[in-house]
Design brief:
Blueprint (H helix, E strand, L loop, with lengths): L1 H18 L5 E5 L5 E5 L5 E5 L5 E3 L9 E5 L2 E5 L7 E3 L12 H5 L18 E5 L5 E5 L2 E2 L21 E4 L5 E2 L12
Antiparallel strand pairs: 1-2, 2-3, 3-4, 5-6, 7-11, 8-9, 9-10, 11-12
């Protein structure tokens, strides 16, 4: 099983390197000791964790679950691989309204995704989706990734259609402007 995981991680690294086109990005994850993720122009990324000095690469789970990361929009929520998490303002009453083609572009975060020690776990919960799966929520809002985010730390989904936004560690939507704000490609 461990060899299979290593093979999958290696394949993911090759895919990330082949995609390229990213700009230099540095993401710092809080907590005890913190961590830094650097994404280079070639699409490669590395993460260094302060506590035990371990290093991981793009696409490799950090084991910390949802965590805090620094971005050009402030401190935001990211998934275990360092990809930015978003909320959809059209969701109401804690229920997702993003299905089919929407969910292909904005995959829901699975409800069993762990919450990192650097976050207030009481802010998180789950909601049932119509397909019977559970989706992770923060402050009652379902959480999503954005498929076009090619590298950990990307925030290209910020402001898409004026309804998709990154989330702060307090669970609040961050409306700060970023490239692409107001696009309708959701």
């Amino acid at each position: 099983m461990k060899k299979l995981n290593l093979a999958l991680i290696g394949a993911a690294l090759l895919l990330v390197a082949a995609c390229g086109g990213g700009s230099d990005t540095t993401t710092t994850v809080g907590g005890d000791g913190g961590a830094t993720t650097t994404v280079g122009d070639d699409g490669g990324a590395s993460t260094t964790t302060g506590g035990d000095g371990s290093t991981t690469t793009a696409g490799e789970a950090t084991g910390d679950g949802v965590q805090a990361a620094e971005s050009d929009l402030g401190t935001i929520l990211v998934d275990p691989e360092g990809f930015t998490l978003y909320i959809f303002t059209m969701d109401a009453g804690g229920e997702s309204t993003c299905y089919e083609s929407c969910a292909a572009t904005w995959p829901p975060v699975p409800g069993d995704t762990p919450i990192g020690a650097d976050l207030d776990a009481s802010l998180f919960g789950t909601t049932a989706r119509t397909d019977g799966t559970e989706q992770l929520t923060v402050n009652g809002q379902p959480l999503y990734r954005y498929s076009p985010d090619a590298n950990p730390g990307d925030t290209t989904g910020q402001g898409v259609g004026g309804v998709w936004f990154v989330v702060g560690t307090d669970g609040a939507m961050i409306e700060a402007s970023a490239a692409g704000y107001g696009r309708a490609d959701y």
